[in-house]
Amino acid sequence: MFDKTKVDYSLYLVTDSTMLPPGTTLESQVYAALQNGVTLVQLREKDTDTKIFIQHAVKVQKLCREFKVPLIINDRVDVALAIDADGVHVGQGDMPISMVRKLVGPDKIVGWSVGYEHEVQELAAMGPQGVDYVGLGMVFPTNTKKNPKKSPMGPRGVSKLLDTLQTSNATWCRTVAIGGLHPDNIPRVLSQMCSNDGKRSVDGIAVVSDIMASSEAGKATKRLRNLIDSKNYQYVDFVVNNPESHSPALEKEYIQVTTLNSPLIHHITNKVHYNFGANVALALGSSPIMSEIESEFVELSQVPHATLLLNTGSVAPLESLTSAMRAYNSAGRPIVFDPVGFSATSVRLQLNSHLLAYGQFACIKGNAGEILSLADLNTGKMRGVDSGDNGSNLSLLVEATKIVAFRYRCVAVCTGKIDVVADGTCEGKFKLSSGSPLIPSQIPAYKVECGDIPVMGRITASGCSLGTTIACLVGGLSKDQSLLSAVLTAVRLYKSAGYLASSRCEGSGSFQVRLIDALDQMFQGEDPQYWKATLSSA
Ligand SMILES: Nc1ncnc2c1ncn2[C@@H]1O[C@H](COP(=O)(O)OP(=O)(O)OP(=O)(O)O)[C@@H](O)[C@H]1O
Ligand SMILES: Cc1ncsc1CCO
Ligand SMILES: [Mg+2]
């Protein structure tokens, strides 16, 4: 008798024989998957006659027993009972959990598909005698479900459900994420799906097509297995974030590296920022290219040191933004995201949320209003694209910046009189089930300041150009260098240049020109130890 509390959910295969490639059978695919590290199998064969279904179930069960992997039957409680399977999985429209449990008894695994918080609360109320595990989803759109009743929730939606499980103390209930999960998105979604307290992540992922539709199901499984086992769910190479090692000497080195590598800074940005951003990139030894030509995105992303600045200020079509994001994510090249006016209107909220669900960013930069909204801490509705009242208390902004950094596993920057930087990458460390080694409040955060420079907030696109500055420093990085230090260097450089420019300008018009002069001058020669802005722990 197997112990259902010890089941390994890490790689869960759900079958679908409608997608088998030529020359394979349901059984041959399951066998290849079992040989290469699948830990749980669910027989899900919709529209199959009972007799055929049972024939498959018996064969698959034999294979699973050989590998000591539990077999779960989808929907058909009768079939599960008839063949003495290890468990059943039901959806919201299937037999109620209490009846399923009554039929299968206490020792079998009962799984439930869950998509909404109230469903999680319902299972929490049933207690450990109800549901053993949940399938959370769907994460992304898939072709597997003909008429999906739910819309994709993205990693953020899964995180909310994990959070509800955590806050309702459903500790016994295990979780797998399901829907559109493939090798190119698994590492990042695994690291992003986490409860708010950082302590609960999914126990595994469920896949259908990546194995069932593969002409090399064994290899496909092995690939998934390796991704899950790597325990380092980071997508960019440079993540060695050692805050202690940050110093003016390192800033100097990073400037040299940027000069040497002259990164291509691909801007997809608002029209107000176009010229300003291009000139800032040039002042910082980088090559700007402003492009919304979708067909060249992949090529651009493959240029050495290419970096994408994705600014949603005045907006290119969503498809275009998404394909740029996909290109840079696939190439493993960094994206700096500036969600301008994040939730100022419902259109912006939808667009920015979509990008956050489908991409992974090295850095997310926003003003106080944007960062507070991203962290769900904004009380008042945002006004336009500017930062609004930034006099709000620093501790709230630090908290919000940490939440954004943690939630999206990036370095987050909140701008204003004092800039706040938080590193939520946790060096790529993340564990299935137990989440991150750090809880959000413990992640490192810093502040960069240089007194009050009101004119910085009085020219348009000054925040956008900080985005450009960050992209230049991040783009210059080589493997094994620190993302956090690159961002800190950029923020301190920009603030110091603002200070210098404000002492030289005659008003906000000449300030912009003076700011580019100052960036140019400081980047070319001035030793960072003389930069005026201070960096300290927040
Ligand atoms: N009062 C201030 N004192 C010092 N620096 C400031 C002040 N206000 C803004 N800044 C700096 O100006 C830049 C823009 O910050 P802000 O918060 O205004 O961004 P933003 O609203 O996104 O700008 P935009 O949308 O116009 O590009 C940042 O580098 C920030 O550090
Ligand atoms: C003014 C303005 N409108 C959309 S984007 C932008 C630049 C500052 O974000
Ligand atoms: Mg802005």
UniProtKB/TrEMBL annotation:
Cellular component GO terms, alphabetical: cytoplasm
Domain of life (superkingdom): Eukaryota
GO molecular function: ATP binding; hydroxyethylthiazole kinase activity; magnesium ion binding; thiamine-phosphate diphosphorylase activity
Nucleotide-binding found in the keyword field: yes
Role played: Condenses 4-methyl-5-(beta-hydroxyethyl)thiazole monophosphate (THZ-P) and 2-methyl-4-amino-5-hydroxymethyl pyrimidine pyrophosphate (HMP-PP) to form thiamine monophosphate (TMP).
Similarity comment: family membership: In the N-terminal section; belongs to the thiamine-phosphate synthase family.
UniProt-recorded name of the protein: LANO_0E03752g1_1
Upper taxonomic lineage: Eukaryota, Fungi, Dikarya, Ascomycota, Saccharomycotina
